[in-house]
Amino acid sequence: MRIEELTWPEFEELKKHVDTVILPIGSVEAHGRHLPLGTDVFAPLEIGKRVEERLHGLGVEVLMAPPVWYGHTFVLDVYPGTINVASDALKAYVREIMREFAAEGFRRIVLLNGHGGNHSPLVLAAEEVAEEFPEVEIWLINWWIDFREDILSICSSQGHAGQDETSVMLAIRPELVKMENARGERRSSRVRVIRKDIGRELFPDGVNDDPSLATAEKGEAILSVVSEKIARLIAGEG
Ligand SMILES: [Zn+2]
């Protein structure tokens, strides 16, 4: 059930027997010359939809919250179309959304994150909510990290706008993927360097992996295993 499609009396009725709300969070940012700016929201939205369907099959109902589209994305901000929200603002905004869900009575809030730059602000936001609402548990799921082993059994590499993310987008919205422009390589630095334009070195054209081997079949396999595993974790069978 998607919260934005419910009336308030329907919501009030549902929350009596639903204790988990899933909140997808992403970013509007450059993903190479081949993926859309909304990639980091499209992916968790699709995973969330599949998790909800699988849980329904297991007899567990959850509520899907409308996503948070804008995230914190310092490194990729050197490319046009990246809309970077300051870390403090994102932390405060997501914290307030979680406080409201906690006050509504939900006992588990699942942050389904699609973007690496959101990680630290989301942890800090979750800690503040957990302090205020000891009865509430917050899960932070970074799908491409938490299920890396599964992903790397499907893809030969992964990375920003890389083989895994491109495959997922080919499975979800193939018409938005320009495979003829899909190129890149893995780059890293020995220590973390924070500099205004570091993104141009580490993410040339907004890519940090070779996306050319991406396929819709790989994307379907990733979406399937990730959503199955998250659903089982939420159902307490994981
Ligand atoms: Zn991404």
From TrEMBL:
Transmembrane segments: none annotated. InterPro entries: Creatininase-like_sf (IPR024087), Creatininase/forma_Hydrolase (IPR003785). One of its GO terms (molecular function) is hydrolase activity, acting on carbon-nitrogen (but not peptide) bonds, in linear amides. It comes from the Archaea. Its cofactor is Zn(2+). One of its GO terms (biological process) is riboflavin biosynthetic process. SUPFAM superfamilies: Creatininase (SSF102215). Keywords: Hydrolase, Metal-binding, Zinc. Pfam families: Creatininase. This is Amidase. It comes from Thermococcus radiotolerans. The lineage of its organism: Archaea, Methanobacteriati, Methanobacteriota, Thermococci, Thermococcales.
